[in-house]
Amino acid sequence: MRIEKKISGLKDDLKKYGSVAVAFSGGVDSSFLAKAARDALGERAVALTIDTLFMPRLETAETSRIAEQIGIKHEILVLSDIDASILKNSRERCYLCKKTIFSELLKTARGMGVQYLIEGSNLDDLDDFRPGVRAIRELGVKSPLVEGLFTKTDIREGAKVLGLDTWDKPSMACLASRIPYDQKITPKMLKMVEQAEEYLLQKGIRQVRVRCHQDLARIEVSPEERDVFFNVKFMDEMAAVLKKIGFRYVAIDADGYRTGKLNRIDQ
pTM for the full model? Predict the structure, then answer.
């Protein structure tokens, strides 16, 4: 009953906004928020997705499917040019990127006559190094899941209660997060990472990151999936595929995947 009560409180809070546009990535957080907003506000809730080089093609396509499942009006906005200051990839990259993306979302929302732009950060996000949160706050974007004291566990449980098939979807982050700070980002690097991760996902691995250290791919999978690398035949195939994609060296991270890892290690 606890999660049902929290969901009810969230919907009551959303009703007070009058109309909202949800910054929609198709992940578990934004999908849960979009569903709650649609339930609370009906046609006065819309979902907006920004399509950039930083977003995998599969994820962009997935946003349309999930929005249809939710029944919320959905628009994809293409942002083809990425500012050089973002591609420089300083530790402020996420701040600069979020400032650009959410400014575009705000402009679109206002053009649609929507009163508020909302996004899906939760309490657990505040524990990591996330400069993008500062940009969101500066622009006046609302974070109802933070205000409602939702953790990631709450959101997954809530998404399941609301009937969303994204409730157990692995966490996702933009492709730029695969490249260590101060290593310049290029479209070629992003495409290499995207193709490598798509290959590994097709092999049945659910949680994966391919970190791009120049011409070296460092592969992280969830700790419980590390035994996939016990198969020598698979490792030979994987190395051959990633080298064909463009990497010169292929390495496996023995620790496995952990959120925000590049924020915590010496690069």
Answer: 0.91
